[in-house]
TrEMBL record, chain A:
Cellular compartments per GO CC: cytosol; retromer complex
GO BP, sorted A to Z: intracellular protein transport; retrograde transport, endosome to Golgi
Family: Belongs to the VPS26 family.
Record carries keyword Transport: yes
Keyword annotations of the record: Protein transport, Transport
Stored Pfam families: Vps26
Domain of life the protein comes from: Eukaryota
Designated name of the protein: Vacuolar protein sorting-associated protein 26
Protein source organism: Wickerhamomyces mucosus
TrEMBL record, chain B:
Main localization category: cytoplasm
Name of the protein described by the UniProt record: Vacuolar protein sorting-associated protein 35
Membrane topology designation: Peripheral membrane protein
Keyword Secreted: no
Keyword annotations: Cytoplasm, Golgi apparatus, Membrane, Protein transport, Transport
Biological source species: Wickerhamomyces mucosus
GO cellular component, one term: Golgi membrane
Function summary: Plays a role in vesicular protein sorting.
Length: 291, 764
């Protein structure tokens, strides 16, 4: 806040190493603009430089300079929590009268969560440099983005369900897997054993549900992608194929933390001619594959 | 469907709105395609116009209209993709278009991209084909699904691989799915609109059938594959769908599009299939189509060698089937008739000489005709009966069919007669002779119904019909053996005596007469004359006086010509008897006398005595006629009986041959005629008769009868002139004709004066 009222006598600039070669990610911000962040993964060392530049001939007294790395969650009700705090001192108390560049390095940082920007919760990572002074500290932060990669081994497990409404509808459906990478394709089929329903169409919905906190103060949000897979009413014995490419959508891997979790569901929805909806929802695990 | 039915106006409005959207979005798409790097936007517009194909309230025709416009628009897109494919990776694009949220636009785009993709070298053609056809399952709404699959079919038409069977399986799969959708259309919506839907389906059938046409056009396969794979699969689908319209239509398509050789060799399969169809299907129609197709095949190929097709045992196979088929169905006669007609035609074409096949069919029809009720409209076997008549090498060959006439006679009388008349016409138009008893019996029993027709229903064509039998009788002939010919005539008479002999006996009579004329030396001539006499007597007995008289006279003439005096005399005697006893009408009497005179004058073989008896009697009859003019004319005609002239056909020549002549008797006749003429009360009539007598006189004068003198002729001319003059004052218009006649006669005399000097002496 102080910097709003006083011109800071020094400029701070944080640079990550290998910024030229590091992968960038584009994230939509609230006001619709797109921000670019450097991308890190779990266990990766975060190192870089801080340049402290003193403005024309001034000298600045400080009680020390430190660099910190934060992982924070920020809930829409205002609650904030740092789940990760790392700190290094860059310089002991002294007087600065010329520009100095410091190297910093957070070795093998364990990043528990992915960076996330949901409706009710945001997971942020950033490094923060602080020049400590008697009256007001001078700080500068730089955000970065974290992706967690995984390669689950039980990919083969398919989802098979046999559901129905007595004397009205009986279907069997199958998704080839229950766990999908974000660029995967959901493949499946629906087999109609009995159908007396006048079906108008059938779609699958891909639902991402974010849950924050615990009952009774839980906050929920979900995001749905709808995809029509059948037009009209099939007859008994008909098999309808399902294929949904995931790569084109902006999806969030399934994740679970103490504070919040993100779950993904696939829901088969049948809409009859009177507009009634019949659906069956199954959870699927989405992950970010490492390659 | 819960969709409320909407009015045609609203439907049309929907259509117009959709067309506008499609046109607008197509234009937008075209602009994007023309600018660089805007393919994604172009696809977006394409997706927009494709959304219009999600319509569900249009009639099939209206939907088709939309489809056509969309097809053209997608063509633009496909052409662009083809031209630009190195820039746009088609496999990526194929995936990309699948993000479309709605299935109908998505699949149209997929097919559009996929089919362009297939044309690129090294494209995974088989996988693309499989994927597209599999994904199309997502559209289960009948009309939309049908058109989508039709689009798939149209797009792939020219690019399916030629070298393997995948393409065929691809089309077959599409066919099966389309058929299912098409059949399902029938079961949508309220049952009261059943007929409307049937009509709509009728309009859509070609979409389904086009697949079979496609298969038939491919050259990827051989007969073996057709028999073991293609046909069974199609047939299974046809049977399974149980739908009447589909079964009728699709079987017909199969029959029409695949080669005839295939049908010949897969006959069992086809017949088995027909057996398993929905009972409501018009089996016969299909069956008949099949048979006709096979029949025409032989016609087209002009296969004359039976051996080529004998192996198939075609007739037996089909025939067994018909019998079996008949057991499980209750046929109307007309249906049976059509069925039997087609198999008959097939047999006639394939096995033209196997009469036993036809007899088998006819026998079957006979049994049915006895069981079922026939009528005059359509419940009869008329076209079956006409089939051999029209298709045997000669109509008369129908006599080789043992069961033909039995079946004919089982038809309702009116039908029987109509058919008999047609058959009779065909026979008469053909050049043939009835030369043996078998043929005669066959034909005459065939036409029993015409022969025995007594015209109780006052048919206006009756005489015409009977005349045809007369013509038939004239076909009886055996040039080699008189006895056989005569037996044929006797047998014909036996057939005819139950009918109206007035029309038919004269034909037998004259046929006999002709037989005698050509065989005058034959030993049976006498009995033939007696036969003729019997014919005449039978006619006489039923009151045909005039006819009997004429026939007697004809008999008399012929018997004289072949020098059978006794017989001839007898015939003349019969003429006189009839004349005396039965002819009472004066006009007829006169005519009869004139006829007798004509014949008698030409006889050559009577003894003088017999001749004198006959001519004297004739002249006497003439002189006894009631009316004076008749008397007069009979008498002057009778004069010729005493003045024979040459008959060049007999080799006679005036001046060389001897003739029976008695000039004195001639003159007597003329004088007598003149007296009778003079006795007429009407002077005009007298004058006319005088002139006629004058003409007779001139005739004899020319022919050298010296009893007719110039003086006599002059006297006659004067007599006539005097009478004419005396009447001229009366200004009688009736006199005009006799006057002209007189003048012409006088003119004639004048012209004769120049060539015959004897005429110089005639006064005028």
């Amino acid at each position: 806040m102080a910097s709003l009222f006083f011109t800071s006598p020094i400029d701070l600039d944080i640079k990550f190493d290998d910024e030229e070669s590091r992968k960038n990610i584009e994230i939509k911000s609230k006001n619709g603009k797109k921000d670019n962040y450097f991308l890190y993964k779990d266990g990766e060392t975060v190192n870089g430089t801080v340049r402290v530049q003193v403005k024309d001939g001034k000298s600045v007294e400080h009680t020390g300079i430190k660099i910190q790395l934060f992982g924070t969650t920020e809930i829409s009700n205002g609650q904030k929590d740092d789940f990760l705090t790392l700190s290094h001192d860059l310089a002991p108390p002294s007087v600065l009268n010329h520009s100095v560049t410091y190297n910093f390095s957070f070795k093998d940082v364990e990043k528990r969560y992915e960076s996330y920007k949901g409706k009710n919760i945001i997971v942020n990572y950033y490094v923060k440099v602080t020049v400590l002074r008697k009256n007001s500290d001078i700080t500068k932060i730089k955000k970065f983005w974290v992706h967690l990669y995984s390669n689950p081994t039980d990919l083969k497990k398919s989802i098979k369900l046999d559901i129905g409404i007595e004397n009205c509808l009986h279907i069997e459906f199958e998704y080839s897997k229950s766990t999908y990478g974000l660029k995967d394709v959901i493949v499946g089929r629906i087999y109609f054993l009995l159908t007396r329903l006048k079906i108008k169409h059938m779609e699958i919905s891909l639902i991402t549900r974010e849950t924050v906190g615990i009952q009774p103060n839980q906050l929920n949000d979900s995001n749905t992608i709808r995809y029509e897979i059948m037009d009209g009413s099939p007859v008994k014995g008909e098999t309808i194929p399902i294929r949904l490419f995931l790569g084109g959508y902006d999806l969030t891997p399934t994740s679970k933390t103490n504070q919040f979790n993100v779950k993904n569901y696939i829901s088969l929805v049948i809409i009859d001619e009177d507009g009634r909806r019949y659906f069956k929802q199954s959870e699927i695990i989405l992950f970010r594959p490492s390659t | 469907m819960t969709e409320t039915t909407i009015s045609p106006e609203e439907q049309n409005q929907l259509l117009q709105d959709s067309i506008k959207v499609i046109q607008r979005e197509t234009n937008a798409m075209r602009k994007c395609l023309e600018s660089k790097g805007r393919l994604m936007d172009a696809l977006k517009h394409a997706s927009n116009f494709l959304t219009e194909l999600r319509a569900s309230q249009l009639t099939p025709k209206q939907y088709y209209e939309l489809y056509i416009i969309v097809y053209d628009s997608l063509n633009l897109l496909a052409q662009f993709l083809k031209d630009n494919h190195p820039h746009h990776h088609l496999s990526d694009l194929y995936e990309l278009v699948q993000y479309a949220g709605n299935i109908v636009p998505r699949l149209y785009l997929m097919i559009t991209v996929g089919t362009v993709y297939m044309t690129i070298p090294d494209a995974p053609v088989k996988e693309i084909m499989k994927d597209m056809i599999e994904m199309c399952r997502g559209v289960q709404y009948p009309i939309r699904g049908l058109f989508l699959r039709y689009y798939l079919s149209q797009r792939t038409k020219t690019i399916l691989p030629q070298e393997n069977l995948d393409s065929i399986q691809f089309i077959i799969t599409n066919f099966i799915e389309m058929n299912k959708l098409w059949v399902r259309l029938q079961h949508q919506g309220p049952s009261r609109e059943k007929d409307k839907r049937l009509k709509e389906r009728e309009e859509l059938k070609i979409l389904v059938g086009s697949n079979l046409v496609r298969i038939s056009q491919l050259e990827n396969y051989d007969f073996e594959y057709y028999k073991t794979d293609i046909l069974p699969t199609i047939i299974e689908q046809i049977i399974q769908c149980k739908d009447v319209l589909a079964q009728e239509y699709l079987l017909d398509v199969i029959i029409q599009v695949f080669p005839d050789e295939f049908h010949l060799k897969t006959l069992d399969e086809l017949l088995q299939c027909i057996k398993k169809l929905n009972p409501a299907v018009d089996y016969k129609k299909i069956f008949i189509n099949l048979i006709d197709r096979l029949t025409n095949f032989i016609k087209r190929e002009e296969i004359t060698e039976l051996s080529d097709i004998a192996d198939f045992n075609l007739f037996d196979k089909l025939w067994d089937y018909i019998k079996e088929f008949e057991l499980i169905n209750e046929f109307q006669v007309y249906e049976l008739n059509l069925l039997l007609e087609s198999i008959t035609k097939l047999s006639l074409i394939f096995y033209p000489k196997k009469y036993e096949n036809i007899d088998l069919v006819l026998r079957f029809a006979i049994e049915k005709a006895k069981e079922l009720e026939l009528d005059e409209q359509k419940e009869n076997f008329s076209s079956l009966l006409l089939m051999p008549v029209d298709n045997l090498s000669k109509p008369s060959k129908i006599l080789k069919l043992q069961n033909f006439s039995e079946l004919l006679n089982l038809q309702p009388a009116k039908v029987n007669k109509q058919l008999s008349l047609i058959i009779l016409d065909r026979l008469l138009s053909q050049n043939f002779r009835i030369s043996n008893l078998q043929t005669l019996n066959g034909l005459f029993s065939l036409f029993k119904i015409i022969i025995n027709d007594k015209n109780n229903d006052n048919n206006a064509n009756y005489a015409n019909e009977q005349e045809k039998i007369g013509k038939l009788i004239h076909l009886i002939s055996n040039k080699k053996d008189v006895t056989i010919h005569s037996k044929l005539l006797t047998q014909a008479k036996n057939f005819l005596n139950g009918g109206n002999i007035k029309f038919t006996y004269p034909s037998i009579f004259f046929n006999t007469l002709k037989l005698i004329r050509f065989n005058p030396e034959s030993q049976i001539v006498n009995s033939l004359f007696k036969f003729m006499s019997r014919l005449i007597n039978e006619l006489f007995r039923i009151g045909l006086i005039e006819l009997s008289f004429k026939l007697h006279l004809a008999g008399a003439q012929l018997s004289d010509q072949i020098k059978l005096e006794e017989i001839s005399y007898e015939f003349f005697a019969q003429c006189f008897t009839v004349y005396e006893e039965s002819i009472s009408d004066s006009r007829l009497q006169y005519q009869s006398i004139v006829s007798i005179i004509g014949v008698l004058q030409q006889t050559r073989n009577f003894t003088r005595e017999n001749y004198d008896t006959l001519i004297t009697k004739t002249a006497l009859y003439g002189s006894k006629l009631l009316k004076k003019p008749d008397q007069c004319r009979s008498v002057y005609f009778a004069s010729h009986l005493w003045w024979g002239v040459e008959i060049p056909a007999l080799g006679e020549e005036e001046g060389i041959s001897e003739f029976y002549r008695d000039g004195k008797r001639v003159l007597e006749c003329l004088q007598r005629a003149l007296r009778v003429a003079d006795a007429c009360m009407d002077s005009v009539v007298s004058i006319e008769l005088f002139i006629e007598i004058l003409n007779r006189c001139l005739y004899y004068f020319i022919h050298g009868n010296e009893n007719i003198t110039v003086k006599y002729i002059n006297g006659l001319i004067e007599l006539i002139q005097t009478n004419v003059d005396s009447l001229a004052e009366e200004n009688n218009t009736n006199l005009e004709l006799p006057k002209k006649h007189f003048l012409r006669t006088l003119d004639y005399i004048n012209t004769q004066k120049e060539i015959d000097e004897r005429f110089q002496l005639i006064s005028r």
